[in-house]
Amino acid sequence: MDATNNNNYHDQQNIGNIQKMREVLDTLPPFCKQFFRGITESTSARTRLAYAYDIRVFFEYLHEKNSACARMEICDFPLSLLDMITREDIEEYTEYLSYYEKDGKIYTNDERGKKRKLCSLRSFYNYFFESELIKTNPAQLVTLPKLHEKEIIRLDIDEVAILLDQAEDGTGLTKAQLRFHKATKTRDVAMLTLLLGTGIRVSECVGLDLNDVDFKNNGIKIRRKGGYEAVVYFGEEVETALQDYLEERNHIIPQEGHENALFLSMQNRRISVRAVENMVKKYSSTVTSLKKITPHKLRSTYGTSLYRETGDIYLVADVLGHKDVNTTKKHYAALEEERRRYAADKVQLREKRPGK
Fold first, then answer.
1. Residues 48-60, buried b or exposed e (16+ Cβ, 10 A)?
2. CB neighbours of 110 closer than 8 A, spacing ≥ 6?
3. Which of 56, 103, 128, 156 has fewest C-beta within 10 Å?
4. Mean pLDDT within 181-204
């Protein structure tokens, strides 16, 4: 048996990211290893991998567009190269990110994609500059793209009910989809109800093990972004959906290494994030064609409902696992405005006089 199968889902993901990281590092200049070792204690393996992909795009750009860099392989780039890069070079790189081709595939980046890649490059430059290994820091001179607020897409209350009803009865599914519906509907309803009833992330959902569910206290133990554990509580509807699924789950023989997984695929393996995304897309496309619903949109739907019911933005932040309440406020700014308008006439300063 593979030794990694003894680890839980999150440990396996971490090991996978470390392995991918090593592969990417083999394609980068040797001095990059120093940077990634330097940020190990303050970042997750997933974050470092994302940085590595972004930095590789930068070096590939230099290799393709810079005449001096084109003469040598990326793996041979010296650290001194960073001091040769100017602010203008990085601004041109930002423009390049809008549209480029690699291995016959087209890549595009909107303002958010550009900002993320520039932030990765800033962290990279800052590390070597603060370590006094380079003399210049042009990445710090480039202005980050201004992000325009995106409208939060969420399901309305009636759409939530329709989504769950259709997951149960299969209305709107194609004949091909209906062939599998009977085998997956109880699982699908359980996952959709759990996502909509707790606001957990899709990665937290697929990472659940059987012993993470506590029906005595109606709670689930999840691993949040950053690696810390938390308990999220659920209501009666989620409890019923999970109990119904577990009746079926107890009669399934999982594949070796997947015995502990709560949610299983048709192949009796732990279900993947991609499979849950496809499942949500399948059902939601029959509910609304105007909204692109993803598992994250189900999370936004829960956050909106909880905020409307409680008016407590700090509670919403805590339940959703936001470390900074300002992140929550940013997502629910429209609802904040709605509540402020509602409050306008609630405080009466003087009794109304007759005739006025």
1. bbbbbebbbbbbe
2. none
3. 103
4. 95
SS3 213: strand
- CATH 1.10.443.10-classified regions of the chain: 157-343
Q: Is there a contact between 98 and 61 (Cβ–Cβ < 8 Å)?
A: no
Rounded Cα–Cα distance for residues 290 and 189 (Å): 23
d(CA 92, CA 318): 41
CA distance 179 to 173: 10
The CATH classification of domain 157-343, taken from the options 3.30.830.10, 3.40.50.2000, 1.10.443.10, 2.40.30.10: 1.10.443.10
The pLDDT-based confidence of 1 (bands split at 50, 70, 90) is very low
Vertex 45 angle, CA 6 and 113, to 5°: 135
Quote the CA–CA distance of 140 and 131 in Å, as a whole number.
15
Query: What are the DSSP calls for 82-127, one per residue?
Result: HHH--HHHHHHHHHHTTEEEETTEEEE--HHHHHHHHHHHHHHHHH
How is 249-276 classified by DSSP, letter by letter? HTT--PPTT-TTBSSB-TTSSBPPHHHH
